[in-house]
Amino acid sequence: MTGDTPLMIVDGAGVVVRWSRRAREIWLRSDSEAVGQAALAMVMADAGDSGVGTEPGSGAPGIHDVDGNPVDLRVQVVPLSDGGVAWGLFEADNSAVPGDTRTAAFDILRAKTGEAFFVLDSELRVLSVNEAACALCDVAADKVLDMPVAEVCRPSRPQEFEGLLRGVLTDGTSVTDYVVRLDPLDSAAPERFAKVSAFPLTNARGVVASMTEITESLRTKRRLEALGSVRERVGRSLDVVTTCQELVDALVPGFADIAVVEVVDAVVRGEDPPLSPLGRDIPLRRAAFRNAAPVHAAQAHPIGDVRALPSPTPYSQVLSDLRPRAVPLDSGTPWFDADPERARAIRASGARLLLTAPLALRGAVLGLLSLYRVRPNDAFDENDLAVAHELATHTSLSLDNARRYTREHTIAAALQRHLLPPEPPSQTAIEFAQLHVPADAGGGTWYDAFGLPGARTALAIGEVSGSGIDAATAMGQLRTVIHSLAALDLEPDELLARLNDAVVRLAHERAVLPPGDPLHQQPLRASCVYAVHDPLQAVCVMASAGHPKPVVAHPGGAVHVPEIPAGPLLGSGEGPPFATASVPMREGSVLALRTTSFPASEGADGDRSNPLREALTRLDRPLREVRDDILYRLNDTSGSNDVLLLLARTRAFPPDQVATWSLESVPAAVATARHRALDRLRLWRVSEETAFATELIVSELVTNAVRYGAPPIRLRLIKDVTLTCEVSDGGGAAPRIRHARTVDEGGRGLFICAQVSHNWGIRYSGEGKTIWTEQTLP
């Protein structure tokens, strides 16, 4: 016999009175199913045969399993002398004879594998277990027989677990890799997880279930997923607060149930972070919060709240020694008294475990990460601390990048703000309203509007490639160049050509920088529209260098985009030459100059789908109201570049403030011009000093036109904020200031004009030239 324990014990009537574990494995019947039944009916194929049946050629009784299949098993029947008539059925030594395949396989699995196995009957009671199953469930083998499997394994959802196994019994379909959480016997022990596979036995009379503990593999997977999620999602933004929100979104609900990120308030503004240990008076801003629970989850402080950390608490200690720590939370936690608001939120949320880690870089404190878990058995271990340290390091790098960007953007925005003009003051013939919506990566857009001689106004808008401080600096350089070129009274196309030369030179300076300089690899390109409005001619002459075309709106609701020849980008060094277009601008018309980030305005004149067009159809209101209406109609201004718009509404220049005379090309015309000018200056009540200087200017300029110019000759006086004197003739010769000798009778005309006026210049046109002077008026 292979053992001293009988497979079964039967009484004199052949009824089973004791049923062994080995019998349960062979015939898959529990004690309650076997005891009291006829032994032959359970183990023989045909209980009606006379005598003891034998298998052919074996000489052994014909033993069969519960389904009637032959079982190659040798047994011995031995009488028992226990005071009654009883027989014991023992398993004989059959090492030379192969046993039942299913029973032998289970013996091997029970002895050799670390996987937990359970053999269950039709009522899901345990018929047999191996040592791995006992170790997994922390039970003894002799204590679990005939117990419901759910009581042995203690799944967190027992009804769901039993329903799964009953489905295997009913449908006869196997289930694999079903994950269950096992409740520990000790409430303080960490939770455990197992992967369950279940297979039906023949005719669905039982189930074989295997369980493999996967607790550590699940935790490892959770840590790896948390690291991967943080590396993928955190750092995509260059905004400090957005980076913090990316972190909590990456960690909840996978790695933690609640996540809070607080950053040093100075870091949000782009300032340098303080060194550790963090001072008690340094405030932190609550930048991000996420709870896997419902929306109305408890918070100690709202998002955006700024305050210093109470001390001593785990949070203050982490920011002191820069070491992450895991802390259990219960009603007796001693540091709750130091931070009652946070303690209240912890109790309300049901958090049981805290892991807090510093957001620090090179000894400087950027903020604090706090992670909470609600399930009391879901503990943070040393591996979780290591993962928290790694993901906090990654986030700290991202936060520092965002801080540096914020600092650079702040400097660039301040530089741009100082380089841009304030809203241009309205002039006699034109009024302005500007719209500027800065972007996070802005810095290279600009607009300008300034007066020119002859009551004219120059308008410009442009954009430099790139962003940040370098773009703002280049923008300031180009704006200065435009002012300098405009002082020469150049036509818009010629001004853009000279501006292009300046951009090409600046781009060359970048190209010869050392290779390590960031600007070395950044080409300099810019776009610009330059326009000159002449109220006396009721026209606006404009030219474009790769910039969106302006929009013109006229009283009555007509809105159109004028056809302006498209010039190349400034700095490209190629393309057609710049050309001008003249656009009529009657009284009350509005010219809109915009940057590339502003919504496009091209299309039919009746188009109402564009916010700019729709707002410009109603010009019967103040220009500032039109500007605000355009802003309110913009759906999204969160692009990467500034949204810039300059509106200019034309006015009629007062006709009594302009005087024009045509003169003959004879020497007597000088005296005539002088007398007419003095009469008009008296009418305008100009001071005697200004009138005397104007008389000298008129005399000298008309004399030069008669002597060196060509007809027709014209004199024009314009009284605006300044007094302008213009003398035009049909000649193309360029006058110049001469330094006459003491004995010379002439050659001092332009020198005298330059001395008695505050500005003078020459303007050329297709009909000739105009020499002008400007004098300040009190």
Total helix count? 21
Q: How many individual β-strands?
A: 31
Strand fraction equals 25-35%
Q: Rg to the nearest angstrom?
A: 47 Å
Tell me about the biggest sheet?
6 strands, antiparallel
* Mean model confidence by pLDDT: 83
Query: Which word captures the global form?
Result: rod-shaped
Distance between the termini: 131 Å
Instruction: Provide the low-confidence segments as ranges.
Output: 47-61, 94-105, 603-608, 740-747
Sheet/helix structural class: alpha+beta
- Spatial ordering of strands, largest sheet: 12-11-10-15-14-13
Helix content: 25-40%
Descriptive account of the structure:
With 778 residues, the protein is of the alpha+beta class. The chain has a six-stranded antiparallel sheet, with helices on both faces. Strands 17, 18, 19, 20, 23 and 24 form a six-stranded mixed sheet that branches. It is rod-shaped.
Any descriptors?
778 residues, alpha+beta, 6-stranded antiparallel beta sheet, 6-stranded mixed beta sheet, 21 helices, 25% strand
Brief digest:
The chain is an alpha+beta fold and 778 residues long.
Q: Topology, please?
A:
Elements (H helix, E strand, L loop, with lengths): L7 E4 L4 E4 L1 H7 L3 H4 L4 H5 L31 E6 L5 E6 L9 H12 L3 E6 L4 E4 L1 H7 L3 H4 L4 H5 L4 H14 L3 E8 L9 E9 L5 E8 L1 H19 L6 H12 L6 E7 H4 L15 E8 L14 E2 L6 H8 L3 E4 L11 H10 L3 E9 L2 E10 L8 H38 L10 E8 L7 E8 L3 E9 L3 H19 L5 H20 L14 E9 L4 E7 L5 E3 L5 E2 L5 E2 L13 E4 L5 E5 L16 H6 L6 H11 L9 E8 L7 E6 L5 H15 L4 H21 L4 E7 L2 E8 L19 H8 L2 E7 L2 E9 L2
Parallel strand pairs: 20-23
Antiparallel strand pairs: 1-2, 1-4, 3-4, 5-6, 5-9, 7-8, 8-9, 10-11, 10-15, 11-12, 13-14, 14-15, 16-26, 17-18, 18-19, 19-20, 20-24, 21-22, 21-25, 25-26, 27-28, 28-29, 29-31, 30-31
Helix pairs in contact: 9-10, 9-14, 10-14, 14-15, 15-16, 19-20, 20-21
